């Protein structure tokens, strides 16, 4: 039996902002069905890592391989790869993102928000886009809110719409960047419940979170990002309950 092809293979990934060297060589394989929790202090580069994976930020060096296909082409005399626009558009379809601040279009209804990418990026006919959007909205439990505007929804409902929007694109992997950090405490549970349901479907996901209790139950792997490197990695039990590195221990103590 051959090992499954990683959905994402992250190899020696670096990201610099000017002289600020944020990511210093990240290596990580994301296998089909992996649910990887990324933890680390504020400013450690967690968002930057996710943003490099769907190319909202361009890596400074290193490579991302999506389902066996390397993204970007080498440039003679440079560590930085060259990326074609159509290639990046293809990658972004396959790598979905859910943000801390939801990022819904305020002037569009729930249905329009979820349909938007299907029509403009996937080029589905309106009727088909509508049908798929309705199905995804129903799955996150918001079927009766399709005509509402984001401003009239709770934060938890808005985040569930954002999840429906990402799912509608049928991505290979979903990236969640602190999806509950801007929610009132009483709304966190409904969003985590939605994410847990996706895990039960076997979806491949990376989740940046400070909810270590949730990470423990949700993830099959946990990685701790510090100083631009994955300082420690392992099962939730290894990293969250029995961390080997003192740095990880100190981080986890602050959150428990
Ligand atoms: P985290 O998500 O772990 O809190 P970020 O990835 O947002 O961390 O940021 C890591 C570091 O990179 C921070 O010091 C931040 O100020 C810096 N940074 C992030 N994005 C940019 C950018 N577009 N330009 C310059 N610096 C950035
Ligand atoms: Mg962040």
From TrEMBL:
CDD domains, alphabetically?
Answer: ABC_HisP_GlnQ
Subcellular location field = Cell membrane
Q: Which Pfam families does the annotation name?
A: ABC_tran
Q: Does the keyword Cell membrane apply?
A: yes
Q: What is its EC number?
A: 3.6.3.-
Q: Name the family the entry cites.
A: Belongs to the ABC transporter superfamily.
Leader sequence range is none
Taxonomically, the superkingdom here is Bacteria
| Higher taxonomy | Bacteria, Pseudomonadati, Pseudomonadota, Betaproteobacteria, Burkholderiales
The family database entries (InterPro entries) matched by this protein are listed as: AAA+_ATPase (IPR003593), ABC_ATPase_HisP-typ (IPR030679), ABC_transporter-like_ATP-bd (IPR003439), ABC_transporter-like_CS (IPR017871), MetN_ABC_transporter-like (IPR050086), P-loop_NTPase (IPR027417)
Topology in the membrane?
A: Peripheral membrane protein
What is the name attached to this protein's record?
Answer: L-cystine import ATP-binding protein TcyC
A GO molecular function annotation here is:
ABC-type amino acid transporter activity
Main localization is: membrane
Keywords noted in UniProt? ATP-binding, Cell membrane, Hydrolase, Membrane, Nucleotide-binding, Transport
| GO CC annotations on file | plasma membrane
Report domain ABC transporter positions. 8-252
């Amino acid at each position: 039996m051959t090992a499954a092809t990683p959905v994402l293979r992250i190899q020696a990934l670096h990201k610099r902002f000017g002289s600020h060297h944020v990511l210093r060589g990240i290596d990580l394989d994301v296998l089909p069905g992996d649910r990887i929790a990324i933890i680390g202090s504020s400013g450690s580069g967690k968002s930057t890592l996710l943003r490099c994976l769907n190319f909202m930020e361009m890596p400074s060096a290193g490579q991302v391989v999506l389902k066996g296909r390397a993204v970007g082409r080498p440039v003679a005399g440079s560590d930085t790869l060259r990326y074609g626009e159509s290639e990046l558009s293809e990658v972004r379809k396959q790598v979905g993102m859910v943000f801390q601040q939801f990022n819904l279009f305020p002037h569009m209804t729930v249905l329009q928000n979820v349909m938007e990418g299907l029509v403009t990026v996937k080029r589905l006919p309106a009727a088909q886009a509508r049908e798929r959007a309705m199905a995804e909205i129903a799955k996150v439990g918001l079927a009766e809110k399709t005509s509402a505007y984001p401003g009239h929804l709770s934060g938890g409902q808005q985040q569930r719409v954002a999840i429906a929007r990402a799912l509608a694109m049928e991505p290979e992997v979903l990236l969640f960047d602190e999806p509950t950090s801007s929610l009132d405490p009483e709304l966190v549970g409904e969003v985590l419940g939605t994410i847990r349901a996706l895990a039960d479907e076997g979806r491949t996901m990376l989740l940046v979170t400070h909810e270590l209790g949730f990470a423990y139950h949700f993830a099959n792997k946990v990685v701790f990002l510090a100083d631009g490197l994955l300082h420690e990695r392992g099962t939730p039990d290894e990293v969250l309950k029995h961390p080997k590195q003192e740095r990880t221990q100190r981080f986890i103590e602050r959150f428990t």
